[in-house]
Amino acid sequence: MDAKKGAANDAIQVAKEDQLKINLFALKNQEMTEIRERVSDLEKEAENLKDANASIEEMSLMEDDAIFPYQIGEILVHLKAEEAQKHIQTQQEQVTEELKELYSEIEAVQLVMSDLKVQLYAKFGDNINLEAD
After folding, report:
1. How far is CA 88 from CA 6, 23, 31, 70, in A?
2. How many CB atoms lie within 10 A of CB 94?
3. How do residues 70-123 score in pLDDT, each as one tens digit?
């Protein structure tokens, strides 16, 4: 019986404020995962756009009046090389801008998470795990 009482006395009390910090950390961790997935998707899209632009340049060197299929929404249209490259350039700029915004979001979320880690580890030490698996 004494061992049970000792274990109960060793239990760390989690105040409402601490639970709110833990919950916020979990939310920010999920947000970080979603942002990183979006970044990964956009990086793949940027690479695809780069490859498409290179293919258009290569094909237009061989054929002056080459027409290229280009998807706008759910519709496939045929465009001349210059027009297709303009659309690709616009998309590349949009992707680059969105990536910049996402990288800024990552930095902001990391700051919040780092601050919460410091506070929570200071209070709970090894009794809490805030590291990604």
Report:
1. 68, 42, 29, 9
2. 13
3. 888 899 899 898 899 999 999 999 999 999 999 999 999 999 999 999 999 999
Q: What is the pTM of this model?
A: 0.79
- What's the number of CA atoms in the CB half-sphere (13 Å) around residue 116? 23
Q: Hunting for tokens 């990964």 — which residue is that?
A: 40
Instruction: Give the DSSP letter of residue 18.
Output: H
User: Residue 7: its pLDDT value, please?
Assistant: 47
Q: Which amino acid is at 44?
A: K
52 and 115 Cβ atoms separated by less than 8 Å: no
CA distance 101 to 84: 26
